[in-house]
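Possible regression after last week's pipeline update?

I re-ran a chain I had predicted before the update to compare outputs. Posting the input and the new output here so someone can diff against the archived version. Not blocking, just want to make sure nothing changed silently.
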Amino acid sequence: MAAAVVVVGAAQRERPSAPAVVASLLGELLVTAGVLVLLFTAWQLWWTDVVADREQAVTTAALVDDWRSLADGRPVAAASAVPPALADPAPGAPFALVHVPRFGPDWDPRPVVEGTSVDDLQAGVGHYPGTALPGEVGNVALAGHRNTYGRPFHEIAELRPGDPVVLETAEGWFVYRATTAEVVPPSRVEVVAPVPGDPSAVPVERLLTMTACHPIGSARERYVQHAALDRFVPRGAGAPAELAGGAA
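New output (post-update):
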């Protein structure tokens, strides 16, 4: 008789209602979605930096090796205010390194590649096609991430007037000095014009402009850092003092 009571009790046990089942499934889906979002965020903010840092370091080492072999046998030349003309780089090709001492001793020089596509900016700092090359009259315009993919310009807002920004090529080092900075909407493309802010003007100076998204983690605005060429140091003369003495 006791066994029969147990069976009847089990038969009479209430099943979960349809809304309860749906709510439970929805909760599980939300938890799963949350885990996936966290994993994606970790991938975007951390793993892309790991991969990009490794790949950009390989590119940097290859450029340095090539330049070292080209420099063998070249005569030592003095620093000059009139730098040599550079050949136009191929799209997507690395052709320079950017050194920013202000970013600290742990910040490695980054390759500069021709172009500003998604792939180009994952490979390093992008050079806006059609803008001046290092040392030319006009405006060398560069773009870099502040977040993800090695975030080369993460600390761009730390630059101060007079800080060196050095572009290294096969020919030597182009030492620029930071001048002014501004925050603009993405539509203000004239900041990378030959004369920043005045597309119709004829350039007479050798300038550099660095751009990055602003604020960090957002593409709402652009942080823009301008600089002007101080001097050119030929490779045979050895690296400029700015690369050994920090930001001073």
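Follow-up from reviewer: compared with the archived run. The radius of gyration is 27 Å. Marking as no regression found.
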